[in-house]
Amino acid sequence: MTKPDQTASPTLLFYCYRAVTALLAPLAYRKVAAKLAAHGVSETRQRERLGHASLPRPDLPAETPLIWFHGASVGESLAAITLINQLHSLLPDARFLLTSGTATSAEMAAKRLPDCAQHQFAPLDSGGAVNRFMAHWRPDAGIFVESELWPVTLSTAKARGTRLALVNARLSAKSVAGWRNKLPTARFIMGLFDLLLTQNKAVAEDLLSLGANPTRVFPSGNLKAGAAALPQKHDLIAEMRSALAGRPLWIASSTHEGEEESILEAHKALLRDHPDLCLFLVPRHPERAEEIGGKITQAGLKYSQRSIGTALSPESQVYLADTLGELGSWYALSPIVFLGGSLLPIGGHNPFEVAQSGAAVLTGPGYSNFTETFPPMIASGAATEVRDAHDLAQAVDHWLTQPEQLQIARDAARAYVEEQSGQLDLVVERLINSLCLKEHHD
Fold it and tell me: How far apart are CA 154 and CA 164, in angstroms?
């Protein structure tokens, strides 16, 4: 592989950042450890954030790579697991390490990581934590997902000879503007990567404007499209289908504070023409269930609640699905799903999980975390944007009364996710070539 031009040198700003993070590491650790402890994470595992490994490094022959993936939370970790599975099929002897920062991502990893991989919490971006982490794990390659640009982590890994890639890259407009104000440092950080794979051409242009080497930057689609479909509980699906007894259903998923009022207003409007219609309301944060139940009652609607075991009955106009890990089952029940976090400027949620289930996608305008995904989906008919309760009621009514239009939307959603996931083979090929992993592949 031809070596690209010499990368930019570290800057004064980088050295200042490294010094400050070293000073603030004890305070930062107290904060992140408290968050993990609140989710029941043991003290031993909390200390992984200081670089103290709780697992041994796999005992591997010198020619067998340990490939490290890092993703901030659940969505990024799922994209990483997709790549781990693909790479493992081509590099069967390789072993994988996944790091992330949240308790929920660790819980998900425990359920979905293959046997060839293990999970640790990521070290804080400070010299001591990162050095301990790198000294223990000694990864041959480091693959960072989306927007995880941790200067100390990246520079330390590079200095130790770890080959680096940024995959599924996306940067918000605010983040790009911030890096442009620090262009020499941005150029240094971009130069640490041997490969940068972006979600679309616009992100590729942004990375190039920040000083990334043009020979290393490639638009490659959104890897979340290739993630395994959400797990489904078939007994639960059968139970709910029996309880619904043929009633029409729509779902409002991953809703946030300030959105339920509009969703309930839309549902009340829909009930005028569809009196047996049921709404499955799935809050992003189940701990808000009591508050949301009050809003449902205030709206004059009758509801059942999943977490306390009240059964879905013919009188239930709303089913408050305030549990975790059951979204795949809910999506299997309904061909119409509104994705929350979008009626307000919250950022939106992953539409690929809905499209993979075969449902049509509704979103509000506040999908800033998915600006690379929703506009082309909307343009192709794979998603529909609504702005308020009136729009939402109209869109759901349109699909309830015109099933052929609903089927067109469902087909478009499925076609979009298949087109995006088709990029996965190319991504894996580029990773193997650019990170010098091919020599380990028979």
Answer: 8
